[in-house]
Amino acid sequence: MHILEIKNLQLEFGAGKTAARAVDGVSLSLEAGKTLCLVGESGSGKSVTALSIAKLVPVPPARYVGGEILLEGRDVLKMTPRELREIRGGLVSYVFQEPGASLNPVFRIGPQIKESLRYHRPAAATDTEVIRLLKLVGIPAPEARLKNYPHEMSGGMQQRVMIAMALASQPKLLVADEPTTALDVTIQAQIIELLRDLRRQLGMAVLLITHNLGIVGDLADDVAVMYAGQIVEHGPVREVLQRPLHPYTRALIQSVPELETDVARLTAIPGTVPLPGAFPIGCRFNSRCPKALPACAAQTPELVPDGNGRQVRCPYAQSQIQTPKPPFAS
Ligand SMILES: Nc1ncnc2c1ncn2[C@@H]1O[C@H](COP(=O)(O)OP(=O)(O)OP(=O)(O)O)[C@@H](O)[C@H]1O
Ligand code: SF4
Ligand SMILES: [Mg+2]
Predict the structure, then answer these.
(1) Domains of the chain (ranges plus CATH)?
(2) Secondary structure of the chain in HEC code, one letter for each residue
(3) Pocket of ligand 1, candidates 47, 212, 226: which has the most ligand atoms within 8 Å of its Cβ, to mutate?
């Protein structure tokens, strides 16, 4: 069974004539033990989509206009405040970019993790369990670390503590929103390795948002590419990265000099992502698309399965990709 199924999610900021639809018909699903990466330029709607999973985008200014978010089959959008409190940091846990901003500076890390345990697994709110979690995330000498304040730890160690805290509830789904962007490259690699190990050991589903296509290639089973509030391409990671079909996916990949190269922000595509409320008519990528045809500004493309496990929102994508030459002339 899917841990997560998002069906046709629509979310707006503001109301009436000024309402801006930041998430427009997003559908995604995720099974236990699998990793889905969500990629796209800044402002494309990745974080809003990810936060919606636990209904964490505050209402107002947001309005959940339509769709369903099923966590183990239960619709988050119909949950009571009490049910939402239980799933947040319970069934679904989050890790964000800035560990320093999420840890409370005035408490030692041991009590902070214990607090999370007390809420979700009261019987396990012990030093022994805190030490086990710190060991699980690779913190050396965890018995001594319990007494540290966050500022006594490096950024990488703080991020490990955040991950330990996220794991305290034994979540079935871990949502990591650019968990390594604030860290230096060596530490990034260690945290990614840690996420990979944890997924294997614990069988969690992971939704990972990243700007780093190297990480996507390393960690993802599937990848969804987002642009202007919509998914424009979705499929198995190897195929999407090696043979991208949508012109936007191709542009994203070409904007990274090498797949392994780290980039803080993908900004190399000329132009900018249109803002919600100001999406162009027709294909939302048309003003920036190197392959645009006159019809692209008139017709709104749908996300269509290509018959091989991939979905693409561009009617011309298939025909615009050059068919690779066979390795041997016949
Ligand atoms: N509270 C809010 N009120 C109004 N608009 C918002 C709010 N939060 C987000 N938005 C808008 O929704 C759009 C999507 O934002 P989101 O944070 O999901 O982008 P993102 O893809 O995560 O970008 P980044 O890569 O920079 O994190 C943006 O245009 C943003 O300005
Ligand atoms: S529909 Fe047209 S503008 Fe949009 S991605 Fe395809 S070719 Fe480009
Ligand atoms: Mg974001």
Answers:
(1) 2-79+225-320 (3.40.50.300)
(2) CEEEEEEEEEEEECCHHHCEEEEEEEEEEEECCCEEEEECCCCCCHHHHHHHCCCCCCCCCEEEEEEEEEECCEEHHHCCHHHHHHHECCCEEEECCCHHHHCCCCCCHHHHHHHHHHHHCHHHCCHHHHHHHHHHCCCCCHHHHCCCCHHHCCHHHHHHHHHHHHHCCCCCEEEEECCCCCCCHHHHHHHHHHHHHHHHHHCCEEEEECCCHHHHHHHCCEEEEEECCEEEEEEEHHHHHHCCCCHHHHHHHHCCCCCCCCCCCCCCCCCCCCCCCCCCCCCCCCCCCCCCCHHHHCCCCCCEECCCCCEECCCCHHHHCCCCCCCCCC
(3) 47
Cβ–ligand 2 distance for 227 under 6 Å, the answer no
> pTM, whole model, 2 decimals?
0.91
Residue 64, ligand 2, Cβ within 6 A? no
Q: Extract the residue ranges of the chain whose pLDDT is less than 50.
A: 259-267, 322-330
Please give the pLDDT value at position 259: 44
